[in-house]
Predict the structure.
Amino acid sequence: MKISGSIFGLNFSAQGMSIQRKKMDLIAQNIANADTIRTESGEPYKRKFLKVETENNAFAKSLSIEGQQLQLNVTNQDHIAASQNPQEMSISSAIDNVKMNEEVDQKAGESIYMPDNPEADEKGYVQTSNVNVINEMVDMIAVTRGYEANLQSLNSAKQMVKDSLEI
């Protein structure tokens, strides 16, 4: 969702809420398929997660005061490139460069001894899904809190706009 105009605070909150909603959808899908030992491809269900990234480190470019870029101490130079020009991109255009990719966790699930199961291998073990429901529930709580924070930010920005119109 994109809110047009010069009020970029609304855009940041709306984009954050969109990201959190997509994360919640994937968490719900993971929990629903946690016990699936055979999918259409014949393999156990693999956990899915959302990878969110921006192009050209928009965060670093938006950190400038009166044309002078703020310097950040970093432990890894790949995280925030200090040599980027902050004038190339405005804060509101940073939202347009967000990429959301659904990825699959390739870690193997647990092998459980069930010799009577038709999916068991020659040794009697069944490969299960790599979804840990407890971790998914913790992620769900974190995503819910992130959504609530973005919602509060959106409501605060709306209230500021409303109050400024009453002046």
